[in-house]
Amino acid sequence: MAPEQHSGGDELGRFLRARRTQTSPQAAGLSPGPGVRRTPGLRREELATLAGVSIDYYTRLERGKETRPSPAVVDALARALQLDDAEHQHLRDLAVRAARYMPQPAPAPSRTVRPHLRLLLETVRPNPAYIVSRSMDILAHNPGGLALYAGIADWPATQRNLARYLFLHPAARELFGDWDNQIRGCVARLRALAGTDPDAPDLTRLVGELLLKSPDFAGLWERYEVTGRKYAAKTFQHPQVGTVTLGFQGMALEGTPGHRMGVYTAEPGTPDHDAMLLLDLTAVPSGQKR
């Protein structure tokens, strides 16, 4: 199975349809009325009325036939669907892309990590840290940054991808006590990225693989949820150092579009910091085998 390749209008319609079918009439302030509803969530005519547009116009939007909604219409749809800030911005981005008759393909993202960034990864030790591409390929790491994801070092370097790890590595479910929450956030980030660049080869390859191999991924992909990146502590049930809870900070890197650095932290003198230090000391250095 491979991800669909469609125009910007198709992607806009797909997002609207997904959000409409997951918005209940009660949440939108409507009375569901008597009888059994055949349509999950809102009906097209209900959403059109809430947004102040004609049913025909909204239907054309959802079917990808109308590709130039005004900012006012986009904002009205966002209010009617009760989108959060990240979802609202994603809808705006999709509308901008849909309005381009011939969108220019984005250049292939670089996979080169500059030497000073590799030095930075070493400088922050014992804090586990890594650099990933926009599609979550691990491009560089310090010892703890790889060892924290138990078992991922057993994969060839070209296969080390955080999304692939979450869905396909047998150790991932045991490593994360909140695995369900982790995979939901992972898919939402990929969905948001693929929505505005749906035919990018690095994304389509990864998404196609996960759609084929993981029913969990396929189910979440169909829901079309998007979310922004938020600071959060993560708890790992690590086979080498036990239970450890670490703060996390992700940051975009200048000069390499799409690359991000992730760094885990713990307060010095705490058991979590001691576990982090132990992981750094016992991790296999990059380039060596176990």
Please explain how this structure is put together.
The chain has helices at residues 8-21, 44-51, 55-62, 71-80, 85-98, 115-123, 143-147, 162-168, 172-175, 179-196, 201-213, 215-223, 271-282, and strands spanning 129-132, 138-141, 234-238, 242-252, 260-265. Helix 1 (8-21) runs antiparallel to helix 5 (85-98) and helix 10 crosses helix 12 (215-223). A five-stranded antiparallel β-sheet has the order 2-1-5-4-3. The protein is of the alpha+beta class. The chain has 13 helices and five strands. Helices cover 45% and strands 10% of the residues. A hairpin with a 7-residue loop joins strand 4 (242-252) and strand 5.
Characterize this entry briefly.
With 290 residues, this protein is an alpha+beta fold.
Largest sheet: 5 strands, antiparallel
What is the count of β-strands?
5
Q: Trace the largest sheet across and list its strands.
A: 2-1-5-4-3
Alpha-carbon Rg, integer: 22 Å
The number of distinct helices, counting runs of at least 4 residues, comes to 13
Task: Describe the secondary structure blueprint for this structure.
Blueprint lengths: L7 H14 L22 H8 L3 H8 L8 H10 L4 H14 L16 H9 L5 E4 L5 E4 L1 H5 L14 H7 L3 H4 L3 H18 L4 H13 L1 H9 L10 E5 L3 E11 L7 E6 L5 H12 L8
Antiparallel strand pairs: 1-2, 1-5, 3-4, 4-5
List keywords for this structure.
290 residues; alpha+beta; 13 helices; 45% helix
